[in-house]
Write a structure and sequence with these properties.
binds zinc ion; about 750 residues; disordered N terminus; two-stranded parallel sheet
């Protein structure tokens, strides 16, 4: 445990007394960031934990996942009523907030192999003996990708591996052009919406996406129902809207989808795909892939099907027909509010979505029932005379699956109030047996390390922090091992996108976190017909014991944020993580430069020509643009200053704070994340205003930290790099100034 974490919040005592007190109190109970009276908080957390019930979570989960509950469905509406009624009974002020959004559902899906032989894809998932949910068919959403455009296209097929930029570079070396063709890509390695986006940019007329058994099927593990993995008929549904541009309702970017708001014409909506796209099973993909000719794929493209994988194009020729009902539907968020007893205008927000692709037992119900457990326990404490000091708002979001729509529209509607009042947003989105995963704002890193130390792992009885630490230290990632050994806190992961934290963090600049357990008992039910109660309770979290653990983690965090005397934000961890991200970016630029030099030298010397098999079509790579040296100095200097002021502020926060200053100190603390945003947004996508965390825009994979600079280098927009460095440095310098003012407010004589 670090010094900063064990140091007590104290008032009016000498350093010596503080030190003695520290030893005394540490023996009585561990320090808790932001609390002077830790005993009272420890007792409160113990009675909170006593109220959590795994059995109750299982009962709720069975009811909520009994039938398909996609947005606009009958069971979805029933679930809203089910949750709203319980929140109300527990004592919450409940509001069901509605939005009218565009949500296409399929009218026609047809995929046919026309040449060199014929085959019609089944596009259905098998009924599984022993899983009664899979036999319910009348309310099931068929497998499809939401926000694909309509289309009827016929063309030769090309296999594009994962359909990411480096795959297209390889195709170019094989002399394969996808213009006028239909591409088939594996799921994985990118946000799925990038696959049709890139394919369309390259001139393709249609996209098929399938789960290869090497990644998600029999090569990975036993398939359902023998094991949790994807069987031959399973299909991953999912949205393909261009979410890295903006999430939420495609017709109302930046505005809530309510009455009176101007909507784009559907033809003008920039986040719809440009070409039709359909997800298929590996059973349906196999005959298509087996019919491909052309070169055999490079070794690293091979999948797990019992065929020789070829690139094409052709002779396989397919027809893809898709037609959607472009319906406007009403979606419903359940918002349950417990007013704070002392600071009603400071809001701690805690959310999970309630819509699923079908039964959605794991995604989202396993997270939803953990949230309900927390809400019930917190309300019981309030009824027993211990209400939260700050307002706690529980949210069950609708329409997350098609594109974070319920949460995004809600944030867009309440943006001004959130800007003033939101302390933090804690998200969950499903759960499983295993290890605690924490993604989030690095200002909450020290806080979440403490929370993780306070929660017991149900399988090992160690703390969930210790179990996570053990996993990292016994893992293969040497860099991570060395890093953790040299650090007090386990790093929390930066957040890109993929769940409802995105509008809070990246659009509203609210410190956010995403919490889940996982890594054990998972497998391929994600977004298939097989995400059922039966599958979940057999493989993912039998007995909901990790459901209770998730409720403990998120509930403890919510309680601490709601009750802390001084909000538990710390800044040295942020500065340290930013340093890591800058180092990674500099390394990336250096690597890109030496790689360009190496390739260009080999091209000049003719080595590629000499080494190639003359009977194969694989050509040398294209010459690469030379990578200039960039001026990272403004960012290095800004970070050096931020590191210094962060240490100064963290010291001040651990020391004495005058009682009358607390409201202003807390307000400045929780609004600090807003200062990491820039009103002009990110290049080409002004909905995303956060300058530290963003989902990938050009390449679409994962999270991009310091996105302006990182993406300019990755996309080889070398001319822009210095300007993006300067822009990001300016944001960080303004942030440091903000922290400096905060430190000066706490300790006037030593700052400024
Ligand atoms: Zn989900």
């Amino acid at each position: 445990m670090s010094l900063t974490k064990t140091r007590l919040f104290s008032r009016g005592v000498t350093a010596l007394v503080t030190a003695l007190l520290l030893v005394f109190s540490a023996a009585a109970s561990a320090a808790i960031l932001g609390f002077r009276d830790t005993d009272a908080q420890v007792a409160l957390e113990a009675s909170f934990r006593d109220q959590l019930s795994a059995v109750e979570q299982a009962q709720w989960a069975r009811a909520l996942s009994a039938r398909p509950h996609h947005p606009g469905s009958e069971h979805g509406a029933a679930n809203v009523a089910f949750m709203a009624e319980r929140f109300e009974n527990w004592g919450y002020q409940v509001e069901v907030e509605e939005f009218d959004i565009l949500l296409p559902v399929p009218l026609k899906r047809h995929l046919e192999l026309l040449e060199p032989k014929t085959f019609t894809a089944a596009l259905t998932e098998d009924v599984i003996a022993g899983d009664a949910s899979t036999a319910q068919r009348d309310e099931v959403l068929p497998s499809y990708n939401a926000f694909s455009v309509d289309g009827d296209v016929t063309g030769e097929l090309v296999f594009v591996n994962y359909g990411i930029p480096e795959d297209y570079e390889m195709l170019e070396r094989y002399g394969v052009d996808v213009a006028g063709k239909i591409v088939i890509a594996k799921y994985g390695r990118s946000w799925r919406g990038i696959k049709p986006k890139l394919a369309a940019e390259k001139g393709a007329i249609g996209t098929l996406i399938y789960s290869d058994p090497a990644d998600d099927g029999y090569a990975a593990g036993d398939v359902y129902p023998d094991g949790p993995w994807k069987n031959a008929s399973g299909v991953q549904r999912g949205s393909v809207m261009d979410m890295p541009l903006y999430p939420g309702d495609v017709l109302t970017p930046g505005k809530p989808a309510i009455k009176g708001v101007r909507r784009l014409k559907r033809e003008k909506a920039p986040t719809l795909t440009k070409i039709p796209v359909l997800p298929i099973s590996y059973r349906d993909a196999e005959p298509l892939l087996a019919a491909l000719g052309g070169e055999v794929v490079p070794a690293e493209w091979r999948g797990g099907l019992p065929i020789t994988y070829h690139i094409g194009p052709g002779p396989a020729k397919v027809r893809l027909q898709l037609e959607f009902d472009w319906q406007r539907i009403t979606i419903r968020n359940v918002i349950a509010r417990l007013p704070g007893a002392e600071y009603p205008d400071e809001w701690v927000l805690r959310g999970n979505h309630h819509d699923g692709w079908n039964h959605g037992a794991a995604d989202p119900i396993s997270g939803m029932v953990a949230l309900m457990s927390e809400a019930k326990a917190l309300a019981a404490l309030a009824r027993a005379g211990q209400p939260p000091r700050r307002t706690v708002i529980y949210a069950a979001w609708d329409a997350e699956e098609p594109g974070l729509i319920g949460s995004t529209e809600w944030v867009e509607k309440h943006i001004d109030a959130l800007d003033e009042k939101a302390v933090a947003y804690l998200n969950t989105d499903g759960n499983s047996r295993g290890f605690l995963g924490i993604g989030g704002s690095h200002t909450l890193e020290a806080f979440f390390n403490e929370v993780a130390e306070a929660v017991t792992d149900p399988q090992t009885r160690s703390s969930v922090a210790e179990r996570l630490r053990a996993r990292i230290m016994t893992g293969d990632d040497e860099k991570r091992r060395t890093d953790l050994a040299a650090r007090d806190d386990i790093r929390i992961n930066p957040l890109g996108s993929g769940s409802d934290y995105t509008p809070f963090l990246q659009h509203a600049g609210i410190a956010s976190a995403n919490l889940s357990f996982g890594g054990e008992g998972q497998g391929g039910s994600y977004h298939t017909l097989y995400d059922t109660y039966e599958h979940y309770t057999r493989f993912r979290d039998p007995g909901f014991v990790y459901g209770a653990a998730l409720a403990e983690v998120a509930g403890t965090a919510t309680l601490r944020l709601a009750n802390a005397e001084v909000l538990p934000f710390r800044f040295s961890g942020l500065a340290d993580n930013l340093q890591l991200y800058l180092d990674e970016i500099i390394e990336l630029a250096d690597k890109q430069r030496s790689e360009a030099d190496r390739i260009n030298d080999l091209l000049t010397s003719g080595s590629f020509e000499l080494a190639r098999d003359p009977e194969k079509t694989l050509a040398p790579p294209q010459a690469l643009p030379a990578v200039p040296h960039f001026n990272f100095a403004p960012l290095k200097n800004a970070l050096a200053d931020l590191t210094a002021v962060a240490a100064e502020l963290d010291r001040a926060l651990d020391g004495e704070i005058a009682f009358e200053k607390l409201p202003e100190v807390n307000r400045l603390l929780y609004r600090s994340e807003r200062q990491l945003t820039s009103s002009d947004g990110l290049p080409g996508r002004d909905w995303y205003v956060h300058q530290v965390y963003a989902p990938g825009f050009y390449t679409g994979y994962g999270v991009k930290t310091l996105p302006r600079v990182r993406e300019a280098i990755e996309a080889k927009h070398y001319d822009d790099v210095d300007a993006e460095v300067a822009h990001t440095a300016a944001t960080l310098r303004a942030f440091s100034e903000y922290l400096r003012k905060l430190a000066a407010l706490i300790v006037p004589e030593t700052s400024g």
